[in-house]
């Protein structure tokens, strides 16, 4: 329940010290719970009469004895990149500790469904994966439940690469395997933007309450925080979003004119909510985008030095496109639905990056 900042030159074994110290502390914590459970059972009798109880484990935990094994904190070990994490996991393999571990990664690193991996941008992969998962049409995802209890997997220390190899061998999705391993893991490894960026933290369902958090290579933390709370939105993004919405309107109009013969193809069940997207909603979103474009265009920006405004300015700008605190949830959901529909349209190459940027900004 304290914060510490530790510095040491490169090559002095920081990682090994952090791992061993943390895991030793955790084992001691667990032993002391066992000791107090045994002491309770013995009701004052001496188990080892010549050895004082204290010497076989009373953990220093703020004076009150930990009572349950569920009180043992999870250890979240965060480093800047996955390649740094791979080195940390290698170090762990060289120690005598064998905790249950799990490493979190994105679909980018962990997805093995070829159809999803062929998609050019990350957010389309996400949408496509979600669609396949919700309709149970991804063979790898369907095997996760059965393989997630596999003894080789649960009891060995695996990094991203090992997880992908295991997934390919067992035809099970490494991404969802890592999420199910997380439930049982003693140590969870992740890049630290997963922790620092509230969006990622929600997406990966990371519970920080009562956990021990270690930032390795922490000198980059500040920069990561800045990045996760910053965004850029260019006129090109807005224009490409308008093009994408236009395309969907055209498709919907076609569908209406041809009667309902096409409905099945076009109305991709929107993600998770299972509702069809309404043409008025699409039209409203288009209007918001046009207003946003007009609002951005209305500022004269001198090309040589640009303009700087106070932070509150962004809210005023978005408000001109009717994007306010009260409307944001509806607009966000509608944009997600539109991206979902566009991802599902057969044979259309269309950039939804602008729409996705807006979704991220609203979040």
Automatic annotation (TrEMBL):
Keywords: ATP-binding, Helicase, Hydrolase, Nucleotide-binding
Pfam family, one: ARCH_RTEL1
Transmembrane is among the record's keywords: no
Residues annotated as domain Helicase ATP-binding: 1-263
Cited PROSITE patterns: HELICASE_ATP_BIND_2
A molecular-function term among this protein's GO annotations: helicase activity
SUPFAM superfamilies: P-loop containing nucleoside triphosphate hydrolases
CDD domains, sorted: DEAHc_FancJ
Domain of life: Eukaryota
Name this polypeptide is given: Regulator of telomere elongation helicase 1
Organism the protein comes from: Characodon lateralis
Gene that this sequence comes from: RTEL1
